[in-house]
Design goal:
- Helix content is 46%, strand content 21%.
- The chain has 13 helices and 11 strands.
- The strands form 2 sheets. Strands 3, 4, 5, 6, 7, 8, 9, 10 and 11 form a 9-stranded mixed beta sheet that branches. A two-stranded antiparallel ribbon has the order 1-2.
Length: 303
């Protein structure tokens, strides 16, 4: 059995509204022969006559009128659905968003608040986790979109840069007061207990690389899987750690933390927002746009 296509049903309704095949052809940007062919296809598929000529106009048969009465409400509903797909306020569903702690503790709350204003009917499920875990969950479809340290690996993954985060060696002022003698970075590092976020975080990898570059033994460093707790540990005087500058500004302003070596060039981590290439619908495009507006990370790496 032949199927009746959506374009053929739409053609039927336009002929009914406008009264002639020519008028429907102009409305639908088609030729009159194409309109006639669509009607013939419908009549063949349904096994009924839909129109009869009445002077210069085409009048619907009883079966034609009945079909129009059934189809027009469906077309109106379909138009509404298509319109909703382009209307952020009408968007609905559940979006699973992953975020690293650095983003979560800086501008993430502003980001979510703006998303709620733009797409109020969407349900947001948020997971805070380490970069490696989020990459894996994104690749396996357990997250729809994620904010984490670059790079976004995977052939089926797209990303946009959210900017750069400066990392700096920080310590408590009391710890600094005990060790005022000048020295190289290696000597300063070896003079203190070293802490880091737990692996496999991006900042742990950066810490290990920096220690290796300085020839400092990394076997005995302490780790913590929560950035807020780690900052508190360092502020207590328990050691030093490579911390995101964006999260310790207020601690520095209050005199709770100081740089290990203020003159030292700070390394940087780039952060991205990433999603799978098969997820390109309006909701995710809006999320990316909002993230790019809300990010407070530095958009240019420091030379």
């Amino acid at each position: 059995m032949k199927r009746v296509t959506l374009i053929n049903l739409e053609t039927l309704c336009w002929i009914s509204r406008l009264g002639t095949f020519n008028a429907a052809a102009l409305k639908m940007n088609a030729s009159p022969p194409a309109i006639s062919a669509r009607v013939r296809e419908m009549e063949a598929a349904l096994g009924v006559t839909l129109f009869r000529r009445q002077g210069r106009r085409m009048a619907l048969t009883f079966q034609g009128r009945e079909l129009v009465q059934m189809v027009e409400p469906l077309l109106r509903r379909l138009d509404g659905v298509v319109g909703d797909l382009d209307n952020p306020e009408a968007a609905s569903g559940t979006v699973r968003i992953g975020a690293g702690e650095i983003a979560a503790l800086s501008w993430f709350s502003t980001f979510i608040a703006e998303l709620r204003q733009i797409m109020p009917k969407v349900v947001y499920q948020i997971e805070i986790d380490l970069t490696t875990s989020m990459r894996q969950r994104l690749e396996t479809g357990k997250l729809d979109i994620a904010l984490f340290a670059a790079p976004a690996v995977g052939a089926d993954m797209r990303s946009a840069s959210l900017g750069w985060v400066r990392m700096c060696w920080m310590m408590a002022p009391a710890l600094q007061a005990k060790n005022l003698a000048p020295g190289t970075l290696r000597e300063r590092l070896e003079a203190h207990a070293i802490w880091s976020l737990s692996k496999p975080s991006a900042s742990h990898s950066m810490t290990m690389d920096l220690l290796r570059d300085q020839g400092v033994d990394s076997d005995g460093i302490g780790t913590c899987n929560n950035i807020s707790a780690l900052i508190a540990i360092i502020a207590s005087g328990a050691g030093i750690a490579l911390l995101p500058e964006i999260l310790v500004r207020s601690h520095v302003a209050r005199g709770e933390l100081v740089p290990l070596m203020p003159e030292l060039k700070m390394p940087e981590l780039e952060f991205v927002i990433a999603w799978n290439t098969d997820q390109e619908q309006l909701i995710l495009r809006n999320i990316v746009d909002v993230a790019l507006r809300c990010t407070t990370f530095d958009m240019l790496s420091t030379p």
